[in-house]
């Protein structure tokens, strides 16, 4: 039995598919099966996949297209490894990714899902920024704020899945929903190392469906925390996506969530002070901008008045 089942769905992924496949085949850890689910691609994806003869490959073809969520669940059912590693067909796993995650999981039996940090790349492969996610105690306290695991970096302990699958009723942020359900019984963690190149381009779901993903994540957040007293705008502020609400209101909402997740409010106090500082800085900046606009309008009005006096 392979140690790891790498699971990668593909739909019309010809542009970056070869890079993705080879990044897995060239891993330093070699004891894995690589499940590629071609979800009814109509481009050259099937042709590209067929050029690889590595015996670790298991290629599944869907006819017709069934969508990414059903494809992922199909892959979870087929996997035979002790761990399942997610992979996307437009990303790149660095050579030591699987080896380092397996070493961590083997020595941290309480962890059900382990992710990593990522370098975000564009369509040309150029690194545009770094994406760090919380680790350890920080993740334990703040898993609810944003998606705690970068999906294509995830490694899942099969014995802790307990039959859970991606919710096929959810169109976006299905992974966030799955992590929250797993977290209710087991621990999540991240390796503080950049082990994947996470591609953002115009065709990627993360880029093209950003607003829909956020709304879906908000709905998942409300459902799992069983709260309907937090508005979408308040959630944006709580998850550090915006500085659009009064700091006192945000602190009250944080205190309410602290009770729900079984944590004392004091552990979130530093974050609320940080939000308050940024909120005031932005408020002052906006005030200065409004003042400048008002002064500019006065200058224009004064110039017109002088001009009218001169013409009389």
Provide a descriptive summary of the structure in words.
By secondary structure, the protein is α/β, with parallel strands linked by helices. The protein has helices at residues 17-25, 45-50, 68-78, 97-107, 136-142, 174-183, 205-208, 210-224, 232-238, 247-260, 269-311, and strands at 4-10, 32-38, 57-61, 83-86, 92-93, 111-121, 127-131, 155-157, 187-199. Strands 1, 2, 3, 4, 5, 6, 7, 8 and 9 form a nine-stranded mixed beta sheet that branches. Helix 6 (174-183) packs parallel to helix 8 (210-224).
Summarize the structure.
This protein has 312 residues and is of the alpha/beta class. It is 44% helix and 18% strand. The model has no long low-confidence stretch (mean pLDDT 91).
State the low-pLDDT regions, or none: none
Radius of gyration: 24 Å
Helix content: 40-55%
Q: Work out the strand percent.
A: 15-25%
Structural class by helix and strand composition: alpha/beta
Shape: globular
Report, as a whole number of angstroms, the end-to-end distance. 96 Å
Question: Tell me about the biggest sheet?
Answer: 9 strands, mixed
Total strand count, please? 9
- The ordered H/E elements are EHEHEHEEHEEHEHEHHHHH
Helical segment tally? 11
Mean pLDDT rating: 91
């Amino acid at each position: 039995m392979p140690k790891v089942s790498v699971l990668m769905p593909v739909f019309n992924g010809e542009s970056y598919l070869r890079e993705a496949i080879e990044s897995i085949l060239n891993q330093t850890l070699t004891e894995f099966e690589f499940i590629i689910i071609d979800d009814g691609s109509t481009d050259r994806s099937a042709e590209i996949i067929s050029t690889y003869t590595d015996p670790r490959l298991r290629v599944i073809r869907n006819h017709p297209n069934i969508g990414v969520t059903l494809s992922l669940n199909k892959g979870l059912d087929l996997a035979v490894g002790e761990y399942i590693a997610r992979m996307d067909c437009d990303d790149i796993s660095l050579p030591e990714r699987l080896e380092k995650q397996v070493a961590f999981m083997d020595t941290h039996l309480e962890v059900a899902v382990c992710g990593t940090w990522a370098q975000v790349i564009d369509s040309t492969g150029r690194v545009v920024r770094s994406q760090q996610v919380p680790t350890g105690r920080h993740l334990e306290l703040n898993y609810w704020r944003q998606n705690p695991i970068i999906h294509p970096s995830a490694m899942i302990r099969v014995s802790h899945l307990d039959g859970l699958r991606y919710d096929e009723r959810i169109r976006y942020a299905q992974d966030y929903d799955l992590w929250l359900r797993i977290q209710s019984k087991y621990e999540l963690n991240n390796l503080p190392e950049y082990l994947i190149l996470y591609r953002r381009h115009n065709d990627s779901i993360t880029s093209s469906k950003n607003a829909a993903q956020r709304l879906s994540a908000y709905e998942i957040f409300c459902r799992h925390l069983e709260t309907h007293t937090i508005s979408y705008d308040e959630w944006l502020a709580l998850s550090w996506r915006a500085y659009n609400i009064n700091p006192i209101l945000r602190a009250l909402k944080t205190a309410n969530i602290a009770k729900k997740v079984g944590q004392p409010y004091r552990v979130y106090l530093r974050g609320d002070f940080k939000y308050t500082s940024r909120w005031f800085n932005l408020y002052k900046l906006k005030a200065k901008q409004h003042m400048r606009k008002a002064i500019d309008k006065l200058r224009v009005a004064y110039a017109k008045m002088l001009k009218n006096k001169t013409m009389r």
